[in-house]
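Let us practice reading a record.
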Amino acid sequence: MKSRFIRLACSLGFLFCMPMPFAHAGEGGRVIRGVVLNVDGSPAAGRQVSLVGLSRGAMRIDMEERGLEGWDFTTDKDGAFMASLDGAGRRDLEDTRPGPGNYVFIVLPSDSDAGAVSPHLLNYDERPSWYGEESKDWGPYLLVPPSGMDLRLQIMKGVTLKGRVVKYPEGKEPMAGLGVNTFHDLYAETHTGRGGEIFLHSAVTDARGNFEISHIYPSKFFVSLCWDYGNRGGTWDATWLKTKTGDGRWRFDAVDGQAPQAGREVVQMEIMAAEKPMFRYSGRVKDVSGGPVAGAEVTFGMSYHKAPRTWADFHHYESTVTKPDGSYEIFLPTPWVLGMDVKTAGYERADRWDPDYIPSYTPGAYNFLLKRTSAEK
């Protein structure tokens, strides 16, 4: 099924930016003299350009605040725009114009192209405050000189993602009516890592589980799954468990990052996903005397990747409570559990347990041993 395009300006939270006139262009220093070119190299007139702040020192603008001076621009007949990074970029100084920090200019995609993304720009900084391997997806950083700089943004045609989603574990039955999303990550310097997602596209799988999304910017992008709420009435995401890409083999992992090869116009993948939690964890909780501990809360930390990759992989939990006989049972949506714990009033762990060590647990039976706290003895 063909994709349903959603323009995503600066994060998955703030979708649309209003066109703005040239904001304080030429005032002060650090002026960015930008030009936007179409796919064929001609000037791109009337295109919307948005500035995205990535570092904690660069104020990031939420959806309801788009339109503040100096963050959104529209190209002129020559495809040109001007921006200044000479502001404070601080709410507390009442100067919200872009200032010190790390930035990216983006051109929003259209129905016929994938938009454009500038290199990461360092304003007043010689290096980013955080620089991981992931940041290299966008190439080397550029230092903004005090005199400003020329900047060219090339609009790209983009690549097409074609795929199919089938039901786990057999992989034979198609999953229809499932939402498939693609987006790019600018790797914002936030404690969650969220806030730098751009260019959201979406499609819904057809009766055969097929989907197609076009005009994806030709850099590393990410894929996610969710029910099409209007069609299925679902309230939770389907769990991605297996992936088949170019080598034709199923991998027991959610391989959701895709880096298009140079010259390739189509990326193909198959996804095997579960409609409901199906991985069973069970066991018993006893005290040191051998008696059952009822009402104890057993908590599971879950990752949605075999090797944890995202902030959410370390911050998603589900729990259950032991029965009168001390037993527990829970079905989880993922087999990649990072750490388990049990707590209840008046007890503490009596088994060998290191709170600083987070082991992984496959589906199975796990027992816990508790002892009375000193205050309860």
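A brief commentary: The helical segments are 229-232.
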